[in-house]
Design brief:
binds ligand LLGJG24Q, 3-stranded antiparallel sheet, mainly alpha, alpha,alpha-trehalase activity, 3-stranded mixed sheet
């Protein structure tokens, strides 16, 4: 790992933190991506496609052929020359993976969705279930034999991919995928995905954003412990618990040390440790190299650019890439400031991790870990109560670190630094037992959610901000709504369960409508317009994408549907 002070640009005090160097292959593919943009133009251009290509020959040979291509002054190549080069020297991204029918897939699993009695809904549930076959992949022999020619990482077990342009496994998507797989009774597939993620911790020290060489500089929202606990609850698999525990303890350290750790001193002089997103990267993201370079174009100073690149990658680490939630100026992406925000959702996930490790250590009889992580969870709960909780609003707010104190070891708490804008993440702590076991808190937060404006015809929106960013309204239909629903259900309160069901029914109806409207399910992340259920023209994701399948199946399993959910928007 190289620190920024060792890199050729000395950017202090703007840019802080470590950088994980990338591979020569990724650097080369970035140049191919840049040339492709100049050659083919920006219409329908997907930069990720080019860093997903693999080489037919060793890098020096392919590089030479690429460098020998006649180029114009602006770096473009004749379309026919470039296409010729691609077909002679590169394999398509899809060649790295093979379709595989999961070993535990059956057309109708025994005991599948027992509470879903309406025939139409049940048939649809079975179709969603059947999509696991479409999204299941294993790494091809070619990747295993010659990993140096591929950016795809050689994982041992089959995976479920999100679909569309995302042909590799993703960290946090896997949580919802696994919730769906469990509803589909596909325990072995779920375990294989978790073992792959544990393998990444063994190799890198943390779970990568996704299984590609260009994702090694950051993680994603840490939900591995939740995956393990959900599988364990259904299978009592002690082998999994034993393999997972050391990895989870390692992952916990990753999120609670170095740049990911923030210390805040409260009014009473007590200090609190919390976590933040912070990528180990300060260059354009390889998979979006041409886009990030353009975003940073207006900045004149290299140091500012490095900082912006770090913010872009750190926002990708948050899973919410991109949203006004992380921006100082909501209309300017170049004002991202993710590394100076202490996020509610990340800390809820780490608190969950601490409670999950306590539970798993207990099961495994590892008493010292039980004591340690129990104490850690109590400390984080206290920190979240102090720094994020706003009793008046009934929400937990992200905490923005003061610019003037940046670079300091301990930040002073200041109530005005809570970001009072409304996001779905403000309600995620409800997912955690430490909060959903408190009746007063649940009541208050449920009321606050109902009046927040986030509850739309299609479920819980990620934010109220009508921006062009992927994770803002109207595009951002949060998978995290599943956690809010789960938390409301787990609280045990009748009113909370009824709110949870109300949210779930919005999501289910909309996705069912999407399915009925298009008369087909797609593997890709598609959108529909569905008057009534899309809330008068709001866009919603269509079932078929990995995580949305998972949420659909988990909701169907939890609530069951006796009623007809037929779309009324046709
Ligand atoms: O293409 C750029 C970005 O793509 C990913 O982000 C989005 O898709 C992921 C897979 O479904 C999802 O986990 C994430 O929440 C989405 O925003 C990737 O994770 C980013 O790192 C990447 O830069």
């Amino acid at each position: 790992m190289m620190t920024s002070s060792q890199s050729k640009l000395t950017c202090k005090p703007t840019d802080y933190g470590p950088v994980v160097p990338t591979t020569p292959l990724v650097i080369f593919l970035q140049s191919v991506q840049e040339t492709a943009l100049k050659t083919f133009g920006s219409s329908n251009f997907d930069p990720k496609l080019y860093v997903d290509l693999s080489l037919k020959y060793d890098l020096p040979i392919v590089k030479k052929a690429f460098n020998d291509l006649p180029k114009t002054e602006n770096g473009s190549v004749l379309v026919s020359d470039f296409k010729g080069f691609l077909s002679k020297f590169m394999n398509g991204a899809e060649d790295d993976l093979e379709h595989v029918v999961p070993v535990d897939y059956v057309v109708e699993p025994h005991g599948f969705l027992p509470k879903v009695v309406h025939k139409g809904v049940r048939d649809w549930g079975l179709e969603v279930h059947s999509l696991w076959k479409n999204l299941s992949r294993k790494v091809s022999k070619r990747v295993l034999e010659h990993p140096e020619l591929h950016t795809l990482l050689p994982l041992k077990y089959p995976v479920i991919i999100p679909g569309s342009r995302f042909q590799e496994v993703y960290y946090w998507d896997s949580y919802w995928v696994i919730r769906g797989l469990l509803a589909s009774k596909m325990y072995e597939t779920a375990k294989g995905i978790v073992l792959n993620l544990i393998g990444l911790i063994d190799t890198y020290g943390y779970v990568l954003n996704g299984a590609r060489a260009y994702y090694t500089n950051r993680s994603q929202p840490p939900l591995l412990s939740s995956m393990v606990v959900e599988i364990y609850k259904r299978t009592n698999d002690m082998d999994l618990v034993k393999k997972a525990l050391p990895a989870l303890i390692k992952e916990h350290k990753f999120w609670n040390s170095g740049i990911h750790n923030v210390i805040i001193e409260d009014d009473q002089g007590l200090t609190h440790n919390l976590s933040r997103y912070y990528a180990m990267w300060n260059q354009p993201r390889p998979e979006s190299f041409t886009i990030d370079t353009e975003t940073a174009d207006k900045l004149t100073n290299d140091c500012e650019k490095e900082q912006l690149y770090r913010e872009l990658a750190s926002t990708a680490e948050s899973g919410w890439d991109f949203s006004t939630r992380w921006m100082k100026n909501t209309s300017d992406l170049a004002t991202l400031t993710t590394t100076t925000i202490v996020p509610v959702d990340l800390n809820a996930f780490v608190l969950k991790m601490e409670l999950d490790i306590t539970l798993l250590a207990n099961v495994a009889g590892e008493t010292s870990h039980v004591l340690h992580f129990n104490r850690a969870s109590e400390a984080r709960k206290k920190a979240m109560d102090t720094i994020f909780w706003n009793a008046e609003k009934g929400q937990w707010f992200d905490y923005w670190l003061n610019d003037s104190s940046s670079g300091k070891d301990v930040y002073k708490w200041d109530a005005s630094n809570q970001n009072q804008n409304i996001f779905a993440s403000n309600f995620i702590p409800l997912w955690i037992e430490s909060f959903n076991s408190d009746e007063t808190v649940v009541k208050k937060v449920a009321q606050s959610l109902e009046s927040s404006g986030l509850l739309r015809a299609a479920g819980v929106a990620t934010s109220l901000s009508n921006s062009s960013q992927q994770w803002d309204f109207p595009n951002g239909w949060a998978p995290v709504q599943h956690m809010i629903v789960d938390g409301l259900v787990r609280s045990g309160s009748k009113e909370a369960r009824s709110l949870a069901k109300d949210i779930a029914i919005r999501w289910i109806r909309t996705n069912y409508a999407a399915y009925k409207t298009s008369k087909a399910m797609h593997e890709k992340y598609d959108v529909i317009k569905c008057g009534d259920f899309g809330g008068g023209g709001e866009y919603v994701p269509q079932t078929g994408f990995g995580w949305s399948n998972g949420v659909v199946l988990a909701f169907l399993e939890e609530f069951g549907w006796a009623e007809d959910l037929s779309p009324q928007c046709q």
